[in-house]
Amino acid sequence: MTGALLLALLPIALLIALGAALRRARFLAESFWPQAERLGYYVLLPSLFVHGLGTARLDGVPVLTLAAVLVGSTVAVALVLLALRPRLALDGAAFTSVFQGGIRFNNYVGVSAAAGLFGAQGIALAAVANAAIVPTVNILCVLVFAWFGSGGRLAPAAILRQLALNPLVVASALGIALQATGLTLPPGIEPVLKALGQASLPLGLLCVGAALDFGTARTWIRPLAVTSVVKFGLMPLATVLACLALGLRGPAAATALLFQALPTASSSYIMARQLGGDAPLMAGIIALQTVLAGAALPLVLLLLEGVAV
């Protein structure tokens, strides 16, 4: 399974490298990248969330307990990051990138790994994980951007408006509503959303690579270290404790731990660019965590043996 995880990470790393190479070679006009980021944020990623959450099969899955473990561990780690912020010596925009790096996850790797571990059951478990974490992290991140982003602090009414209009939050809510009501996407719409969602992953990673700026890498040492320790250390620990507290075991517990130890998502960069975060730092965090995951995820597999019983 370690080999399968590494193979799932390899295309992510290669797409980031390709994006960096295309930007450095000026193969595309500079105006392309901001427009690609906008397309991903407002069209492609929402399509991915609506389709993925709305079409998932959840038969025989401990939905409520698994969701409680994932939401509880995510919120707990988010609160720790907020408590640590005064000690991190980071400006607000940089903190939003550290925050995203600590709590967001890569859907693509998670679904691939869960399917490899548990087959059809793993796909259903991954769907619950997405349904629980996607809206949670997006709401938390919008709140953090509203408070710490470069646009300045927003009034409560403005924060609620931003949440209500955020395309990722709206898409998550729509996908969950479809799942809860049992409604299906119309035959002509479902394949369109699926295709648009599939396009979000490679385009987002190309944009991440294009945004990498190693000339400022020296200033990233502290935030890169903090967010990686949180993502690959604190988050898995919080998840194991939540599993023990709520009695979640077996493949469901293993999937929860797997998802919470994944590298952060390429959508983090798109969100940083659109909502006033430190986008170059976010790109660096995504690239580093993708590389570190090659070593961290095999260690998580050892923990899986302890919880998947």
Automatic annotation (TrEMBL):
InterPro entries: Mem_transp_PIN-like, Na+/solute_symporter_sf. Coiled coil: none annotated. It is found in: Cell membrane. The chain crosses the membrane at residues 63-84, 105-126, 132-151, 163-183, 195-212, 224-247, 279-304. Its main location: membrane. Keywords: Cell membrane, Membrane, Transmembrane, Transmembrane helix, Transport. It is a multi-pass membrane protein. Gene3D superfamilies: 1.20.1530.20. It comes from the Bacteria. Belongs to the auxin efflux carrier (TC 2.A.69) family. This is AEC family transporter. It comes from Methylobacterium komagatae.
